[in-house]
TrEMBL record:
InterPro entries: CheY-like_superfamily (IPR011006), HATPase_C_sf (IPR036890), HATPase_dom (IPR003594), His_kinase_dom (IPR005467), HisK_dim/P_dom (IPR003661), HisK_dim/P_sf (IPR036097), Sig_transdc_His_kin-like_C (IPR004358), Sig_transdc_resp-reg_receiver (IPR001789)
Protein name: histidine kinase
Domain named Response regulatory: residues: 273-388
Origin species: Methylorubrum rhodinum
Residues annotated as domain Histidine kinase: 28-251
Catalytic class of the enzyme: transferase
Keyword Kinase: yes
Presence of the UniProt keyword Phosphoprotein in the record: yes
Pfam family for this entry, one: HisKA
Amino acid sequence: MDTTRQREAEARLNQSQKMEAIGQLTGGVAHDFNNLLTIIVGNLDMIVRKPDNPQRVERLATSAMTAARRGAEVTEKLLSFSRRQVLRAETVNPNRLLKDFGAVLKRAVGETVEIRFDLDASLDPVRLDPGQFESAMLNLAVNARDAMPGGGVLTVRTCNGHLDADELLDRPDLRPGAYVLVVVSDTGQGMDAATRGRAFEPFFTTKEIGKGTGLGLSQVYGFVRQAGGHAQIKSEAGAGTSIELYLPRSAEKAVESRPENALPLRRAASGEVVLVVEDEPAVLEMAVESLGELGYRTLTATRASEALDRLGGPERIDILFSDVVMPGGMNGVQLSVEARRLRPGLRVLLTSGYTGTALDAHAVPADVPLLSKPYQRDELADKLRVVLG
């Protein structure tokens, strides 16, 4: 009876802690998004009421766009924390990513913080999303900078490592074996035990209001978990902080460096026709408008069954541009498979803001580019360049 009561008490405590975390999460989301929506709605309202001053309209629209981008960053970090972010994994050498990204990190921490790289030349490759890795490094660098208001040293170290079974007792989802270790250390204020225990929680922050969202470390945590790895914090008050990221070693060969030079905007060359499949009317209208500006002709459908009807007809269709999550029982990935069965030479571009469980059994094919929402016209043009080779 005593054991049963203890288990019941522990279950009630766990449920209480979960509800507190959910309340903190939803409160943080509401706070951040209401602030951003106030900027967006207020600026658009002023544009609508007085649209005759081009300079004023441009200034207000730029402010609204900046707020919208910040909103997109918040949702991206939330999806990363919950491991719902759609990843485009590559087999890479983390050393190369860190070297390529070093200049950005130096700008982020400022002149008062010295960055030192201690990179193992024999580092094994890992399989991860390079963009998410860079976001994680940037979040760690910014956190370290804020922990060193008077300046200090930020050290980024890489080496090959190994996790034994006894080190993973609290992580039954991980297997013992070879890992690549990336450590970001600072000489800052450090954390006490209470702060250290909550540091990965979304919207938990020790910074002043307006100085941080509390999503930086949660993005790092979500990224590492989704990559199949392990993250841990070593810190003491007044003695600096080290964040250790254990990433599973890959047996594949690392890919070559990505091109650095931006390519010019790609416009339709010979009247290509794009079939746009989107169930949200406003998003569909925006996509059609953007494609029109790029010189593409468009056809539209609001669900997969309607798109298949058009693909089975005689109309010219060069590219299928479809949302992933749609009503009607067929998602964008399934639609792309059926579409290429009907038209073997069809090019496909998928887009999504949040896939939910849509990709649990249907992963995005490796040869199909994915455009994340929200997107702008130029980002759409870049993805169409990839689609068209």
